[in-house]
Amino acid sequence: MPELEQVVAILVSTVRAGTPLVFAALGELITEKSGVLNLGIEGMMLVGAVTGFIAMVLTGSPILAIAAAMAAGMLMALIFGVLTLTLFTNQVATGLALTIFGIGLSAFVGLAYVGTPIKGLQPVDIPALSELPIVGPLLFGYDPMIYGSLVMFGLVAWFLYRSHAGLILRAVGESHDAAHAIGYSVVKIRYLAVLFGGAMSGLAGAYLSLVYTPQWAENMTAGRGWIALALVVFATWRPARVLAGAYLFGGITILGLDLQARGIGFSSHLLATLPYLATVLVLVLMSRDAAKIRLNAPASLGRPFDPYR
Amino acid sequence: MRQIKSWLGLALAAGLVAAGLAPGGAVAADPLKIGFVYVSPVGDAGWTYQHDQGRLEMERALGAKVETSYVESVPEGADAERVIRKFASDGYQLIFTTSFGYMNPTVKVARQFPSVHFEHATGYKRAKNVSTYLARFYEGRYLTGIVAGKMTKSNKIGYVAAFPIPEVVRGINAFTRGLRSVNRKAEVRVVWTSSWYDPGKEREAAETLISQGADVITLHTDSTAPVQAAEDKGVWAIGYHSDMSKYGKRAHLTAATHHWGGYYTKVAEDAVAGKWASNNTWGGIKDGFVKLAPFGDAVPADVRQLVKAREAEIAAGALHPFAGPVRDQAGRIVVAEGQAMSDKDMLGMKFYVEGVVGKLPK
After folding, report:
1. Domain spans of chain A?
2. Min Cα separation B208/chain A (Å)
3. What are the tens digits of pLDDT across the range A71-101?
4. How sure is the predictor about A69, in pLDDT bands with cuts at 50, 70 and 90?
5. Is B37 a domain residue?
6. Which residue from A73, A58, A64 is spatially nearest to A221, judged by alpha carbons?
7. Is A11 at the interface with chain B, CB within 8 A?
8. At B141, which CATH number?
9. CA proximity to A157, closest of A170, A146, A145, A147
10. Contacts of residue A22, Cβ cutoff 8 Å, sequence gap at least 6
11. Which residues on A lie below 8 Å from B19 (Cβ)?
12. In this complex, do A97 and B41 lie within 8 Å of one another by their Cβ atoms?
């Protein structure tokens, strides 16, 4: 069944292409749900990617590499947090600055590591299961980070809608004045949310430099941070839709490449825009109820909060 | 307190921006000052890397007679004009601008600095103080096509390419002509990534081609990800711009590589001697602009000999990659037997030759 194998190959590639977006978008989702808009995802991803790569070269341990990438992303997020939450700079401008800073910093730090070969993270190999036809590659043939991204999805969805802490986080994002009045530390909660976003962006970067294309190259994220940001908005801040949007985007990209390789005479320019068009269209159709969007959008998004005012 | 805090914040934010935008250094001294404007980071392989290798080769050859500096990652357009003007007004007498999109800024600045010499790569606008230069990369492509034709078992070759512009199409066609000159059954499949640089997407494109049966992968994009994909998936790879064997120790067969050092040295010598003149240079294998990277271990001796022989024929002018009969995909004869395609037709190439699968996007 060569056709079926082709379909499986496309689906497997889809999951791989969507995973960096899943990590980064879930992180930004939590950040935005707390009422903070961080446009620095691309910068945090790049710093995470280069740090993870360097850690991998130096230690040879994937676990340390991933931890280092998360720590680097959190450090970048901490800079953003100090600027916007403690010093009250404009969140949009600071986020943009963080991205520009991250691009420059990662290029500078990674200069000596461009072209260093590493062995990327290998797929987990569960002897009997991964050899099953179709189901094997589709469910059991991925690297550990992909399973990690799915676990993170479950945790984020559970945290936001089923846990007490998630309720508080959402309250802070809806109305920081009300949350403050009943005694929650708005600034502390937002710091935690921003740090979580940084760690997830670091993971997204590590996925690129350790698994997807196991090398370090300047600016290797190629705009994925911005796509993750857009996904959160178009998914109307719902975790399941973020996940669906990320895979949809990845899937249509892969499908476009596949059609071209078969020599089907589509315009390559059109195929290149299709993932963006289709993802926006589907997510907008899924959430065309304006009232529900207002319900999901954090009302305090992007507004600064000063407890001592 | 509030105000101090926000000023401090603003200063920190400004510091972030400044740190992110700081350009590569420039230096000043007595000898002939030569500036280079690069479109991407110098990196470790690719278009800009090869230009920078050329710059270094020129420095080594001319020693104290020249003093060079460069600015990397300069976006095409207004930024480029600013950088070029800065070089010119800082006393640089010879300025190389190495991307097509620098054409108009170069010509504009050249008009304002008539005593400064400008060298623009890949463009077509010249002036009394503006030369243009380009390399016949297609000659190298033809030779790598021969290697692919000899090495493929599945007769399917995967080609990861950025944009369907004549420069890229010419490379695909020359590669296919070389391929079919030794293997009539082999075909080329092209995937366009619509981006010069996206390692993730380039890797996916290569893996897609491999999953559809391609057993040789080549590329016309700026990252090395397709070579790495070939290495990981156990098929062959042919590099471009630079020797990419580091990314595919087993897979890398050879690469069509760019060499600007000889030209840069000659132009700088002329400028030092006061003999610089506006020219249009399109150099190939004969002139040392294009070379093949060392063969990988897997390439057998007879294939190496064949490629070397063809290389010598091209250098001697006895073999032209687009010598007639050249047929397009429909089998129509585009160049008649006994003729070779003119430079003008090659520069505007907008069709696939026979042997490429699929339609050329318009």
Report:
1. 2-296
2. 6
3. 999 999 999 999 999 999 999 999 999 999 9
4. very high
5. yes
6. A73
7. no
8. 3.40.50.2300
9. A170
10. A149, A152, A153, A242, A243, A246, A247
11. 101, 104-105
12. no
**Is the ipTM here above 0.90?**
no
Which chain B residues are Cβ-neighbours of A264 within 8 angstroms?
358
Query: Are the Cβ atoms of A13 and B19 closer than 8 angstroms?
Result: no
Residue B179's DSSP bridge partners are: none
Angle value at C-alpha B29, between B27 and B33, nearest 5 degrees: 80
- Both B229 and B318 in a single domain? yes
> By the CB < 8 Å criterion, does A4 face chain B?
no
Contact criterion met (CB below 8 Å) for A50 and A109: yes
Q: Are residues B115 and B149 in the same domain?
A: no
Cβ atoms of B80 and B74 closer than 8 Å:
yes
Q: What is the pLDDT of residues B110-158, one digit of tens each?
A: 999 999 999 999 888 999 999 999 999 999 999 999 999 999 999 999 9
CB contact under 8 A, B44 and A83: no
**Fold observed for domain A2-296:** ABC transporter involved in vitamin B12 uptake, BtuC (1.10.3470)
Instruction: Give the helix ranges, DSSP H, for chain B.
Output: 2-21, 47-62, 78-89, 103-112, 137-151, 166-182, 199-211, 225-233, 261-272, 301-316, 343-347
Confirm if A284 and A234 have CB atoms less than 8 A apart: yes
- Chains A, B: CB contacts within 8 A come to 154
Find, among B165, B264, B149, B157, the residue nearest to B213 by Cα. Answer: B157
Q: Are strands B130-135 and B117-121 parallel, antiparallel or unpaired?
A: parallel
Inside any domain, residue B122: yes
Distances (CA, A) of A205 to A47, A97, A243, B3, B64: 7, 18, 17, 36, 44
Decide if A269 and B194 are in contact by the 8 Å CB cutoff.
yes
Q: Which helix (H) or strand (E) holds A53?
A: helix A41-59
Instruction: Indicate the burial class of B316 (C-beta count within 10 angstroms; 0-12, 13-18, 19 or more).
Output: exposed
